[in-house]
Design brief:
The termini are far apart. The chain has 15 helices and 28 strands. The longest helix has 20 residues, at 2-21. Residues 1-21 have low confidence and may be disordered. It has 4 domains: 21-177, Immunoglobulin-like (Sandwich), CATH 2.60.40.3650; 199-300, Neutral Protease Domain 2 (Neutral Protease, domain 2); 325-471, Orthogonal Bundle (Neutral Protease, domain 2), CATH 1.10.390; 479-578, PDZ domain (Pdz3 Domain).
Amino acid sequence: MTRRVFFLWVIFAHIAVSAFAQLPELTYRMDLTSLDDDSFFVQLDIKKYPHSSALFQFPMTAPGTYAILDAGRFVGSFSALDTSGRELTVTRTSVNQFRIDEARRLARIVYKVNDSFGERIGENPIHPMGGTNIEPDNIVINGFMTFGYFSEFQNIPYRLRVTMPADWKLGTALVSKDGYLIAPTYDDLVDAPLMAGRLTTAHWTMDKTKISVYCYSEKNRVNATWLRSQLKDILNASKKFIGTLPVDRYVFLFHFREDTGPIYGALEHNYSSFYVIPEMKLEGLRPIVQSIAAHEFFHIITPLNLHSEKIVPYRFDRPTPSRHLWLYEGVTEWASDIMQVRTGVIPDSVYMQRLREKLLRNDRYKPDISLETMSLGAYDVYEDQYANIYERGALTAALLDMKLLELSDGKRGLRDVIMALVKKYGAGKSFTDSSLYDIIVDHTYSEVREFMDRYIRGSERLPIAEYLIKAGYQYESKYETTRMRNHLGLFEVMQKDTMVIVTSVDPNDSVCTGLGLQVGDIIEKMVLNNIDLPLTDVSLIEFFSFIDEGASFAWVVRRGSQTLTLNALAGRAPVIEKHRIRPVSDPTPEQLRFRRIWLHIP
């Protein structure tokens, strides 16, 4: 037995050494001193490539984006060279893939990467927090938009050497060794964005965690020292909420500019997060910076330390949707707000206002799509509904937290369940995507299954009033104010792409009666004084209400295959507001007790 085991050990050791010897050595190089009109060259040096042909892949998607990126769209010239500098045959097999022949001779790949910040793309646009930016005084590099990989060598070490102007600073979570930035795998390489240029910096240590802030500010209105003071509150809140700072280092990369495009925000990574935020006065920036930073930092918990097999290991070459974006993004958004109120960063009135804002934004989306269905369709059929994960997903998490606190008499809420699951699974162990509901029930109560079936797997209207009253807050879905306004009909609409679709009509409204407006009508334009005013966004309805009471107007609608012109006279009615949340005037002892348990306030 001993001799047999030794013999097998020798065989396995030989195989392991042989396999290790066949792994290529890969070193990326970027020269940021030589930039070319919103583009730069990337060089990959290769030693000992073991195969006769190579498939070089750029990501189709990337962690945390839940979108089609097709990074190869931003790759220009591409060449593969041998040790003598002679070009090898390269065939572009798809937008993201290049096949290289005679790959055993392969010594170097050189390609051009184009800036994505300045591109206005109709299909599959790249949001700035996930793109590349090239300017004379700064450069932003998101690895998944910059670096490719050999399809069979995603899990081997990569090195990166960056050459940049002497007066520039470089911010990244990658570890430096002997003049190179080191990544154990391709996933680690692209998990750490880089920002270089004219930056301000701040560094400190909190509970053995090294914190770094790098800041680029286009107009020099924001600096890293100011950011440090804002982030300290959030990191303290995170520590109290999570119980610890769960990493040994963390890097915040902030990019402030006047024109961020239609979308701004941040993208999370294991040891860093990258932010693109409009440059404005500091008093307006504080809540934006703190809320987004709280969200991104909590991503260390989920999905980075709590995820299904759909997330880890990651497939960069094709999307693998998970059912549980409600967990990865909805719970994270809930945590970013609740941790602030529980630790005193914001008062309960601000938290209630944030709940209201989420309810208002939730109204813009289809009400009959469940969070699970929305998650599974985020890459394609429900791409236009995905952002509601941050609204309805966070609202659902808030109610689930209250449900758990109620069932456990205040001993165990959603935070406690999440941290127990993180302890069970962690970064290196995935749960099965289809089993999470069972796992949560096993760790909580049987009643939680009904909640998830109704509000996560199903699309029932959230019982906001029923839950908030437990803590002594009164919720009204609609309420009449004392203000008056002119109006063009009391009806509700939903936005779908550029279509504005009627979802409800007030049967008691004389203007709607005169119009003959029906649920399902698609409003194309308003006609006033023989002038056509196209309607492509729901916000324009309020803008159009400038006309005088009694003035004649018309909505042009599409109803089935017909186009109809509906005429009426403008009306006047009280302003109706939505989603009011107020503390009750005389809360009961039970309500006050639950409020203390829920929000941790006196």
